[in-house]
Design goal:
The protein is of the alpha+beta class and about 210 residues long. It is about 25% helix and about 25% strand. It has a 6-stranded antiparallel barrel. A 3-stranded antiparallel sheet has the order 1-2-3, with no helix packed on it. α2 runs antiparallel to α3 (about 80-95). The radius of gyration is 21 Å and the shape is elongated.
């Protein structure tokens, strides 16, 4: 599971602020603890419904498993409860994969409206510190820290967070996409220049190298 980052400031959002608080904060907006700006990924009502639904499903599965053990064979509810539980877990997993989006109801610019550059990215393999399956793990809208360099490889920025959009995979470890710098006060015109390079990072590990095409 990727560490999702705030689409406003780029700081890591704790896991507990995405799904596990569905019971406690389903009526409140998700707010970044660092910049205090709102974000969203999926409907909180959907999260609440899943959180409520999984309790009786787990209870049914547990009781049917216990009955199966007692009887020495599968009870009639064991397989249906197992399939429903697996389905709910898959849905929850897919929801938790979704990157965070800006909540612009109180102002601000959506990330997909910011200046963007077309890039080619080569992802590191797992043994080099990268992802095992980047094509599966990285979705449109994901935010990563990046360090920019000029065409000669000389650093031209401190670490900045960028968002990846319009991903098109050429194979399992190469893709083209558009990137935008998420901070609103950064001069993109000095960074998003054709020929400039950048590294992407996740959990303090270099995971990819990109080149700006436009």
């Amino acid at each position: 599971m990727l560490q999702h980052r705030c689409p406003w400031c780029g700081e890591t959002i704790p896991f507990k602020d995405t799904f596990a608080n569905a019971f406690r904060k389903y009526k409140e907006p998700n707010v970044c603890p660092s910049c205090q700006k709102g974000f969203q990924s999926y409907s909180k009502w959907l999260g609440l419904c899943l959180a409520i639904a999984i309790v009786p499903v787990i209870s049914l599965f547990t009781s049917s498993a216990a009955l199966s053990i007692k009887q020495g064979g599968l009870s009639k509810n064991f397989l249906p409860s197992l399939l429903i539980l697996l389905l709910l877990l898959i849905v929850i997993f897919l929801l938790l994969r979704l990157p965070l989006k800006r909540n612009v109801e109180e102002g601000g610019v959506p990330l997909d409206s910011k200046p963007a550059a077309k890039v080619t990215i080569l992802w590191e393999k797992k043994r080099q510190g990268g992802f095992r399956l980047p094509r599966f793990q990285v979705l449109n809208g994901e935010v990563f820290p990046a360090c920019f360099m000029d065409p000669d490889g000389t650093p031209i920025s401190h670490p900045l967070c960028v968002v990846l959009n319009k991903l098109h995979w050429l194979d399992g470890f190469r893709c083209t996409c558009e990137i935008s710098v998420i901070l609103d006060n950064v001069p993109e015109d000095t960074l998003l220049i054709s020929g400039n390079q950048f590294f992407l990072y996740h959990d303090y590990q270099k995971i990819a190298k990109g080149v700006i095409k436009q």
